[in-house]
Structure formats: C-alpha cells, structure tokens
Specification:
transmembrane helix; 5 helices; 278 residues; transmembrane
Length: 278
C-alpha cells in the first residue's frame, strides 16, 4: 500500500496533467456541436470496426463446429438417399427390394487427420476406429465422391487406402453410355483418374459422369467417381482411352463418410463358395 502511495506522489504532476486533458476534452465535446458530432461519428466508426472484427473472429472460431454439423447432416441425407435408391432400383416393376437390402448401407462421419497425394501409393488417416464400428474393407466417400477403402484400424484411428493408389481399382459405370469399366489412378495427377475397359462401340462425351457400379460390395452404387475430361483410343486395343476429373478434391479433404455394407460378408461368403465349387 505504501508503494502505491509513493507512486502517486512521484507521478502527481503527470496524473494531474492527464486529468486536465480529459476534462478539457470533455468540455470541448459538450460545448461544441462540431466537435461533438465529429467525436461520436469517429467513435461509432471505430466501434463498428472492432465489432466487425469480433464477429469475424467468432465466426472463424465456430467454423469447426459448423463443418462438423454439416458433416452429420450429410451423413443423414446420404443414408436416406441410399435407402430410397436401393428400395426403387432401375429394374422391372415386378421386382421389389426387401427392407434388409435397401437398408444395408450405414454411414459414419470421420475427420481426416492425415492425407497424402504426392506418392504413387497414398493413404489417409481418419479419427474413427474399431470403437466406432469401423473395420478393414469398408468403403470411404466424401461429400462429393469416392475416396478409398479402409486398410487397417485400431481402437481410435483408421488408415484408408486412397483411390490415389496404384493398386486401387473401382468398378465404375459410365452413366450415359450405360457401360461398366474400371477406374484406376495412373500415379501422375491427384485430380485425374483413368477409366479403363470402355468399348469403342460406346459413345462417350466430354463431361459425362462416372459413378460406382452395382458390381461391387464395398460402395453404394451411384457414388460419383468423376467426369470425363478427355477421350482417345488405346493403341492396338478396342477400348477408349478415357481420363476423368476426380469428383473428390483430395487437397481440401476434411470430413469423410465410412460406408458399412451390412450384407457384405454374407454376399462375399456366397460368392467365394461358388468360386471354390467351379
């Protein structure tokens, strides 16, 4: 307490000067309309700027929660859309998918922890593992298209084999041509992928969409793979040389959806049994 008193005594002249300045400023503003208006306009402008900065900072801080909320909403919509499509497939009117088939796909939201695109074989790490029901072999998609397949898991994390992997093949359908081929990355550009085995008898146009086909048990059919970028003819072969623009932007991948096919094991077991009996 004594030190505080000593400080005021030592600084009394300066403190008196500041108080007089404040009083002068106060009297000028209250006795002059011009300076009063100028003061309030200036203070309001700076207050508005500070408020704008504060709101911008708050909005930025909330982006993570907003993105998480949007991811959960997309998960719900993906589930509903898949159930609708699977319950009303493009097939004869007499065919009706049972409820177990229509409801076989389940989606789990996961956040991307690590992601590579610069190698010949790329992987993605996500923050969901066996405790969340994730297991190897499950498909992974983004809000815009296909991503990859779960390779290994522990309790809290999983590593996903990216579609940007030299050994990753995806059964894909060229929608307008109604032709099924295989999408495979050539290891060059992370925004492009090749579509193989499309017959030259089929007409292909730039911009045609390519989606996952019905002929796989990992991904729901109709998940976007990409759009036709260029077409050519493979040397000494009867197939188109097609390059796609990938639907998923791997450079900005933040949230993904792990897809569980509840009937996958049953389907694969039956198919394996048939193969062994041949």
């Amino acid at each position: 307490m004594g030190e505080l008193v000593d400080f005021f005594i030592r600084s009394r002249n300066f403190i008196l000067f500041v108080l007089l300045e404040v009083f002068c400023f106060y009297f000028i503003i209250n006795t002059s309309n011009y300076w009063s208006v100028t003061y309030f306009n200036t203070s309001n402008r700076y207050a508005a700027q500070v408020l704008a900065w504060s709101n911008a900072a708050n909005e930025y801080a909330r982006l993570r929660q907003v993105n998480a909320d949007l991811a959960m909403e997309n998960q719900r919509l993906n589930t509903q859309l898949t159930q609708l499509l699977q319950s009303k497939p493009a097939s004869p009117r007499e065919y009706l998918a049972d409820s177990a088939f229509a409801d076989r796909f389940k989606y789990t939201v996961a956040k991307v922890i690590d992601n590579t695109t610069q190698f010949a074989n790329n992987y993605i790490t996500i923050d969901k593992g066996t405790d969340d029901g994730i297991r190897p072999g499950m498909g992974v998609i983004s809000p815009t298209g296909i991503v990859g397949k779960v390779k290994v898991c522990n309790r809290h994390f999983s590593v996903v084999t990216s579609i940007l992997h030299s050994g990753f093949l995806v059964s894909s359908a060229l929608t307008k041509a109604d032709e099924i081929g295989t999408a495979r990355w050539d290891g060059v550009d992370p925004s492009l992928i090749k579509l193989n085995d499309i017959s030259l008898t089929k007409t292909v146009h730039k911009g045609d969409s390519v989606v996952t086909s019905e002929r796989n048990s990992t991904f729901p059919p109709g998940i976007l793979v990409g759009y036709v970028r260029t077409m050519g003819i493979q040397p000494n072969r009867v197939f188109h040389d097609i390059t796609l623009n990938l639907a998923t932007n791997f450079g900005s991948l933040a949230f993904v959806y792990v897809v569980e096919n509840r009937l996958q094991a049953e389907q694969e077991q039956l198919e394996k049994q048939v193969e062994t009996e041949k």
